[in-house]
Write a structure and sequence with these properties.
This protein is of the alpha/beta class. 43% of the residues lie in helices and 25% in strands. The protein has 8 helices and 10 strands. The strands form 2 sheets. A 5-stranded parallel β-sheet has the order 2-8-1-9-10, sandwiched between helices. Helix 1 packs across helix 8 and helix 5 packs antiparallel against helix 6. The chain is globular.
């Protein structure tokens, strides 16, 4: 099963994923995304992204390796067929974070190939600004990301589940409950 976690920038997608992956005897695996953006402090090659030049990214598009790709916040992001196959071969429940458009597109593309569950994490706009500022985004990046808030929130009803991420422990608990319920369907 592939669990797609989406929502606005700085909503806590990677924090939730890191918590799930870091639990003892975790049943979750991870699928990284390709991107052309530079790594943030603490990010390493392969988790949460494979960092490419624009030329390398275009080669992945031309070769057909990407299921979907988007240009978001000044950089390209894309989901790889090879990386998904490798992740699913682990036998774990794969969790992937992806932007809202990419999540909707990927879920449609994969329908019938693999079970996909989509979860939208959200927070209020004021909290989003606080988190963006707190993680050290530039004023330009904060403006761009806040400017996309309404558009991203407009996708809320396109997802199987919605969780307001105000408490990490509660959000992680809800994600695990959703996954268990979906596994038992």
């Amino acid at each position: 099963m592939l669990v797609i976690l989406s929502g606005c920038a700085a909503v806590g997608k990677n924090t939730v994923i890191n918590t799930l992956l870091g639990e003892e005897n975790s049943t979750f695996g991870f699928m990284p995304t390709y991107t052309t953006r530079a790594p943030r402090p603490g990010e390493v090659e392969g988790f949460p992204y494979h960092y490419l030049t624009e030329e390398q990214f275009r080669e992945k598009i031309v070769s057909g390796e990407l299921f979907e790709h988007e240009f978001i916040h000044t950089s390209y992001y894309g989901s790889s067929r090879k990386l998904l196959a490798k992740a699913l071969a682990s036998g774990k429940t794969i969790i992937k974070d992806i932007d809202v458009k990419g999540a909707v597109n990927l879920a449609k593309i994969l329908k019938g190939e693999v079970k996909v569950v989509t979860i939208f994490l959200y927070i209020g706009k004021d909290e989003l600004e606080r988190r963006l500022t707190g993680r050290g985004d530039s004023a330009e990046q904060i403006k761009i990301r806040l400017g996309r808030y309404e558009e991203e929130m407009s996708y809320l009803d396109s997802f199987d589940y919605r969780i307001e991420n105000v408490c990490l422990e509660e959000t992680v608990k809800k994600v695990k409950e959703i996954v268990l319920a979906e596994q038992n369907r």
